[in-house]
Amino acid sequence: MLLIRCPYCEEERPELEFRHAGEAHVARSGDIAAISDEDFEKFFFIRSNPKGVVFERWRHVHGCARFFNAARNTVTDRFLVTYKAGEPKPEISAEDAGPAAWANREPAELNETSSSRLKEQVTE
């Protein structure tokens, strides 16, 4: 079972206690009636769906019932960090993100990086 850390309760709980609430850090218009239909469509329906790290909103529905944000790797389904709603988006390095962060690199570059890591592990 996947465990998710609630930043308000400050403990890890089973995923069944949580609900996904969409993409985090979406800029909302101050005057929704003034924007064009195309811009409204982009705001309301169109979301990024990258392979790798995504920033999402979650709600602890069977706990404190509060919304929070999380950085999650979509390839490994691993939560990298959870943080309270309203806090700025954290910086996540490629190494913290894991294998998915390497998905858009050329194979030669991947092999070069993998072999250098292997050499580091052998010499330690």
UniProtKB/TrEMBL annotation:
UniProt-listed InterPro entries: SoxD, SoxD_sf
GO molecular function, one term: sarcosine oxidase activity
Region of interest (Disordered), residue spans: 90-124
Lineage top rank: taxon: Bacteria
Listed Gene3D superfamilies: Folate-binding superfamily
Alphabetical GO biological process terms: tetrahydrofolate metabolic process
Classification via Pfam families: SoxD
Name the record gives this protein: Sarcosine oxidase subunit delta
